[in-house]
Design brief:
- By secondary structure, the protein is α+β, with helices and mostly antiparallel strands.
- The chain is built from 1 helix and 6 strands; from the N terminus they run E-E-H-E-E-E-E.
- The strands form 2 sheets. It has a 4-stranded antiparallel β-sheet with strand order 3-4-5-6. The chain has a two-stranded antiparallel ribbon with strand order 1-2.
């Protein structure tokens, strides 16, 4: 510490208030960054789940088109053993008697009311 005059001294360090203000600014920015990272991880998980459900529903529709086995219409069932999804196949007749409208609904679990994925296709009835 250098003293210029008898009672005026020039300090070379930071005051306690300055240190506290700097700590508040740093902690606020770290909290904002933590919230952003948490939201990003949550959104990524939801996106991954939606992509898996879309792939699963399209695979089921392709299986239906290839097998022509339209059973369990309107009933929920486990789509895949290793995935926590429930599927529901809904079929409707169309004005053309040789065509059926098939819709696959994919739910996150047994208690879910709204599907996370909905896919449909037109299937030809076996004659």
């Amino acid at each position: 510490m250098k003293c210029i005059k008898k009672y005026r001294c020039k300090s070379s360090g930071l005051t306690l208030i300055e240190v506290l203000v700097a700590l508040i600014i740093i902690s606020t920015s770290l909290l904002a960054a933590q919230r952003t990272i948490t939201n990003t991880i949550t959104n990524y998980s939801k996106l991954q789940q939606n992509i898996l459900a879309a792939i699963l529903s399209r695979n089921i529709l392709i299986e239906l088109m290839l097998s022509q086995n339209i059973a369990n219409s309107g009933v929920r069932y486990t789509c895949a053993e290793d995935l926590p999804f429930e599927c529901q196949l809904n079929t409707k007749n169309t004005p053309n008697r040789y065509i059926i409208s098939a819709e696959i609904l994919v739910f996150t679990d047994k208690n879910a009311r709204t599907p996370i994925e909905r896919s449909f296709t037109l299937l030809q009835k076996s004659r």
